[in-house]
Structures are given as structure tokens and as C-alpha cells.
């Protein structure tokens, strides 16, 4: 017995034609530790957008009910050549009710329960998910649990990674994002120093309401000076950036080095010995990362992804993180949504253009059965 | 009783005026574990050039015996603001004879012996050096030992660092440099895979004579394809680059990722899970480092400097490295010199312009008593 339902697929052809459409799909019966989840809510996170819309020309796309066809311009189309011709599902995470399970004990224990899951194809009425990655939501609603993985585990992952590396302060380049707000609450709870960068005064005010102590506004004329002061105060030489392109990381490294050089008693042509560490965990700006030779050789920049981090952290730490998320789902890890759309509504011109803008506080929630 | 002799100093004023001049200097008596070395030979390494000449306009400088005055253009002058007004010595390493020592046992054991040392002011007739960093040269000449620290320990450091990180292959972006040749010999001796990048056919030929197995010429039309093949063959996802500016590291990361993606059975928008690691250990190109979003998130780029590495490696490993250098000083770790100049001769227009060009195989040796 297999199950049928609507599912979103995204296909990029080699000529740059992107087709995103809702189709009738058949879901095989779950086996082993798989569960079949009737999906009730799935967020559109920045990390979903690359595959969902990417750099497509949304203004001039061809929209019809449950479908749009757009063109992905160069160089973005060629950069995506690995997916040319592939029909891909989308949606990292979501929540719903387990309606069938495989024979595995982990799976059977979830039968009939509401869970959050990370199927990778959450924009769908049904999903096959790994029971080991499901979080039973108990009395919480599907909407409460829909965003319980990507942002909460990423924000917690930053703090865990910092602790592993012996750091007790973090810098975050997009402080006011949904993830940034969670990070602000976590750092406050754990006594971890946090330097938040924002772009606007109202974002700074929002973070200060959450108890943030070091908020620096990049629109201020004396931004670099304030950034140095904040880094110095918090002793934050370790940070995370989802922008990727441009000079954000470069500015942060410069400020960190300026603080360190200010404490040196003797000139060194090689710069300070202060170790400076940054991670790029997203690509909100798909331009090149620019690193100027302005901060010696004591720096390290890495890409950062949630799943490889969780794998390296191991099951004990991951279990502790998930437990903490569940216990604080509607407080520390709460997400808010601007709008709820079903699968067809998420492919209208108005919706696609709106959620691709990724404005702070304007996240969309997909509710496939609405 | 103090000693007097000639010494080179380099001073950059805030207006960009760079004065490099030989002066009469007084050297205090060594104390504790210090030794006073009568310097007989000191190489001009790329790492010495930044402080010695930097980006100064050497064509239009004012040359007089034992002195030149040049202008450092922007943005290089402002980037060097930390040294404005400071009169600095120069010359990382050299070799000579110990003529006086402090009271420390380590120092006293070196009295009268020929040693290699790392005083940081080697362009001088005398140097105060730390006995612990001196390498007794026994029957070797000062010229044999002059370059026994910076290049040999850096090349060995790459291999030690790779081993610490569980790697058995290295990529080096300037294969034919003096350091690159040493690295080729070391990797061959140690059974470490090595991918060498070069810019010219004669450099490739030189390395192949040394037994290099993977040499890729960036002037070839099919460079990227050959680079991928070499990385794949050697399984080299870990490398070192002294160029720094531009897209060298970017090209290497792209090739590494291309090799890894070629082995994947399923598309991932996040790229491969293959960890890719590069280190920038110099700034032959002082432009910005450009990193395009073309290789997922599984990459790490760091600055790399010899002294912090040695400090983290600890005395046992450093001792083993130094012993290996001494035992193979005229073979594995041999340096060759294009020209020998005394302190005055090293400040002539012809010499300065020639050694700043840093051409492969054209290293200068300063012989202060010639």
C-alpha cells in the first residue's frame, strides 16, 4: 500500500530554465527506521531558497496555478551545473503526524505521534523521514515544532562549537535574524559573550530588548571603532557569518586584529599572535569573499554546515542539544511567521518575490493541508 | 665592554618615506642564554623583503653609499602604519661565529663555535641571538648554514603539520621555489604525496629532475584539468600557498571540489563532504584573496607562520626537525645563491631591484665582512 499526495519539485535545465511545480507524488511505505509523516507545517528558511528559487528572474517568470517557470541568469546557471536536468524535492524541515512506520523499534514508537523531522523534501503533503532524526513534539503544535531543527540546532551548534574550541565569546554578523535572536537568547542563558552586527537601528533596538549587550550597527559612521570596542569588551575573536560574499568577514578580521595590535608592546611585521577564527555558514551574498592582507597570518576562515558539524559532535552532544530545543521550543527557540501558505500559494509571484527577499522577521510557513 | 659594528636599519615615516641605511651600532654584552655572533652570511628571503623594501618605488629612489631613500605608495604606506616612525633592524636568519656569551650553560657551550641563528637583525656585523635557537654547524661553513632555519623549517613544518592533521599528501602552489624544491625532496624521502604547481615549463623540468611526480603548469591551456587529475592521483586536499592575493587558492579549492564531486553518487546543493584545507604562508601578491562560492562549505583557509607553528608543535618535534636539517644541510636542505653582497652593496639600486624581483633560483646572500 503506498500513499499519494502533492509534492513540490524544482528542476533546472542546462539552458537556465527553472521549473518549480506541485505534482501528484506517490510515497512508498516506510521500511526499517523510516516513518511516513503527514506534513502540517514547513518553514521556508534561507537555506531552502538556493535550491527553491536561487538567482531566478522572478519578475519575468511565467506563473500558473501550482507552477512557475523562470530563467536563471549567468553566471549562476553555470555555477549550478551539477543539478542540471535533476528533478529535486525541497524543504529541509517541518512537522506533522506519523501515519505509518517501518518495522524498526525507533520508528514504531512514533506511530500516531506529532513530530518535527528533517526529511529534505518537506514541501510535500507526506514525507518519509528517519525516525532517529524525529523530535516528538508532545503537546506542541506542528507550527511550534516546524522550525525546531535548522535554526535552533545551528544557533546551538555555534555555541557548542565555540565551547569545543575553548571560546567563551562569539561574534555574529547578522544579529537580528531569526537565528541571531535565538543565538542572543542562548548566549545570555549560557553566559557566553556575544557581539551582534546589525544593519539598522530598529534591529539594534530589537536585540537590546532581548538583553543583547554588544550590538554594533554597520550603518553608523563610526562602525569600525564601535566594532573594535565591542570585540575588545567581549573578547570575541571567533564568529559566524551567513553573508559570505563581500567584505563582511574582512572587516571583522580587521577589527579583531586592530584590537589585538593595540595590546602589543612591540611592532611585528607579521601582525599579532591573536588567533582569529570565522565561519561562513551561508551565502546570502553570492559574490566572492574578499580577504585583504590586513590582519597578519593568525586567522582561519572555514565554511560551516550543520550536518557535518552534528556528525563530528557525536550523538551525546546532539541528544543534549535536541532535548534543550524541545524543552524551550516556545521560548528560546520560538520562530515567528509573517504568512502561512499552502503548496500552490507558495508558488505565486507575490509570495515567491516576498520570501526570497529574506527580510528580517518575515519568514513564511508552508502548511500543505491548509 | 660592548662591541661595535655596522648594522642595517629600515625606517618608514608616516608620509611614506622609507630610509634604509647602514649605521654604526653598538651591541651590548650578551647576558643569560644570549650569545653574540659575528655574522658571516645572511640570506635575503622573501619573508625579509616586506620590511626591507616593501612596495617602495625603487626606480625613483635616492641612492647613496650605504643608504637609499624611497617612497612607499598608497595604499601600502597606510597599511604599514603600525611601523611608522620606528627604526627597525632586518634579516631573520644567518650564520657566524660566537664571540661572546652570557652566563647561561647553553650559551657558554657555544663559545667560539660556528652557529646558525635567528636573531631577526641578521643584516649586521654582529647579532645578539638566543642560544636555544642556535644550531651548531660543526664542519659546515657559514654559507652552508646561513639559510638553515626559515626555508628548511618551513618546508619541514608543512610536512609535520600535514602529519599532525592525518594527511599523507600536500599541494604546494609554488613548486619550483627554493622552499618548493626542499619540500619536493622531503616529501620524496618521507613518502608523502606532493602536487607541485609551477608557472613555466623549465620549472616543471627542474622539479621532475628532483623526482617530483605531480607537477602542474599553470601556463598550460588544460591547467585545471591537469590539476584535478594530479589532486585525484595524489589525494591531496591539503596545501600551502605563499602567493596569497588573487585566485590561486580559489582555483585549488575548485579543483579539489571538482575531484570530490566527481566521486559523489547523489547531488547535494551544499557540495561534497570532502574536507579541503589550504594555508597562506606568504604574500608574494599583496592583493586581496578572492574566494568564490564554488566549493561548498567543506573548506578551511588559514594564515600560516613558522614561529607560531613551532611553538604549537613543541620542543620535541622542533628538536627532531632541527636535527634533520643539520644532518642534511648540504643535500635535502641546500640553498643556492645568485650573488654575495656586503651591507653596502645590498643597498645599491641594481641589487635592491634585483632581489626584490624574487626570481626563482636568484637568492642573494649578505656577507657583512666580505
From TrEMBL, chains A, B:
Q: Which InterPro entries match?
A: ADH-like_N, ER, GroES-like_sf, NAD(P)-bd_dom_sf
Which intervals hold domain Enoyl reductase (ER)? Answer: 16-366
What superkingdom does the record give?
Bacteria
Q: Give the organism, scientific name.
A: Albimonas pacifica
By its UniProt entry, which SUPFAM superfamilies does this protein fall under?
GroES-like, NAD(P)-binding Rossmann-fold domains
Q: What does the UniProt keyword field contain? A: NADP, Oxidoreductase
Provide a Gene Ontology MF annotation, just one: oxidoreductase activity, acting on NAD(P)H
| The protein's name in its UniProt record | NADPH:quinone reductase
